[in-house]
Amino acid sequence: MDPDTPQPSRSGRDPRLPGPSGELSGFRNKPPDFPLRMLVPSQFIGAIIGKEGLTIKNLTKQTQAKVDIHRKENAGAAEKPITIHSTPEGCSAACRMILQIMQKEANDTKVTVEIPLKILAHNSLVGRLIGKEGRNLKRIEEESGTKINISSLQDVSVYIADRTITVKGSVDACCRAEEEIMKKLREAYDNDTSAVNHHTGLIHGMNLNTLGIFSSGLSMLPSNSSPYRTPNTPHTAYSPIMGHSANLAGLYGRSPAAAHTHSHSVSTSHSHILTLTQ
């Protein structure tokens, strides 16, 4: 018997087929993974990792988060992406610790430039974060005591689908804003995922892209590339239908088979991702 072949359940139903509710078994009751993706100044990466990785190990231990530091992505770039996988609370806790580490390093090295929080978000989600006439964003600014700027829509292309949300304020203020920003982004993502589940159940086995169901017009298939691209690297498509490993493979240019990592280890793959988990 092939262990990779899904076996029928006790009821005799193929788990790959829609259930009574119209959802695929693989999606039902499984919360989608929506990581917090940050951009941090390259000069602070060393401080975030710490001597022999002790600082980042302590961070992951305290927050129970998985942290991917893409330290060799786009060599020479002024900023590096960090991806945090955890619960919303775990992501926020890890974000706070990273901001505190950067602020301390800036103070120790007498860096006077303000260090903003930068969050990456797919363009298809940003409109719902902003809200009608910018009301959502204005409310978050007022309640958190921050100033929030979102990179221009003109910066979005077939190569780069992400927009940068820049939050300026104290560490505490930025953390309050992060919680609300990510809450809105997760809500938008969850709604898109629910729509995918619904239509997958109704039209199982058919190509949803061909049917033109999704108003965003985005490909629902994963790309083999990274959003943090080099000039010759195309972008990934936002893909709520993909599972955890496949979705990350699209984000960071790795196949699902290559998406496995080890605790407190440095990846030797071409993506050069430092991955730490607890």
Topology summary:
Elements: E1 36-41, H1 45-49, H2 54-63, E2 66-69, E3 79-85, H3 88-108, E4 117-122, H4 123-130, H5 135-144, E5 147-150, E6 162-168, H6 171-202, H7 208-211, H8 244-252, E7 265-266, E8 274-276
Antiparallel strand pairs: 1-3, 1-4, 2-3, 2-8, 4-6, 5-6, 7-8
Helix pairs in contact: 2-3, 3-6, 4-6, 5-6
Protein name: Insulin-like growth factor 2 mRNA binding protein 2a
Domain K Homology: 32-103, 113-186
Keywords: Repeat, RNA-binding
Kindly state the number of beta strands.
Answer: 8
Poorly predicted ranges (pLDDT <50, ≥5 residues)?
20-28, 213-238, 241-272
- Which range does the strand content fall in? 5-15%
Strand order of the largest sheet: 5-6-4-1-3-2-8-7
Q: What class would the helix/strand composition place it in?
A: alpha+beta
N- to C-terminal separation?
Answer: 34 Å
Question: From the 3D coordinates, which CATH architecture of the domain at 36-203 and 255-276 would you assign?
Answer: 2-Layer Sandwich
- Largest β-sheet summary: 8 strands, antiparallel
Count of helix runs: 8
Q: Give the helix proportion (percent range).
A: 25-40%
Rounded to the nearest angstrom, the radius of gyration is 20 Å
What are the secondary-structure elements, in order, as H or E? Answer: EHHEEHEHHEEHHHEE
GO molecular function, one term: RNA binding
Pfam family, one: KH_1
Region (Disordered): 1-30, 259-278
Organism: Astyanax mexicanus
